[in-house]
Amino acid sequence: KRVGEILRTGMGIIRTEDSINDALERLEMIGQDDLNKRESARYNLSKKMLLSALDRKESLGAHYLLRTTDT
After folding, report:
1. If residue 8 lies in a helix (H) or strand (E), which one and from where to where?
2. Dist. CA 65–CA 20, nearest whole Å
């Protein structure tokens, strides 16, 4: 439940690098120590999805990365 909430927040339709990084930090704070087998699998998948979204530079389908520029 906690992992799913973090993933929904960080991987919404409109994403920012900050929201993805925040989700990764929140995920790390949970850790895997107190998770059951299903939550642990969800934790691992969520982390991989967030890292993939952070690495992806193009928008795909309905989901897109909102970029801010410092100009």
Report:
1. helix 2-10
2. 10
Per-residue pLDDT of the chain (71 residues; tens, 9 = 90+): 678 888 888 887 778 888 899 999 999 998 878 788 888 888 899 999 999 988 887 766 665 566 665 54
State the burial class of residue 6 (Cβ atoms within 10 Å of its Cβ: 0-12, 13-18, 19+).
Answer: buried
Question: 10 and 25 in contact (C-beta within 8 Å)?
Answer: no
Report which DSSP code applies to 65: E
Other Cβ atoms within 10 Å of 65 Cβ, number: 17
For residues 29-61, b (16+ Cβ closer than 10 Å) or e, as one string?
eeeeeebeeebeebbeebbeebeebbeeeeeee
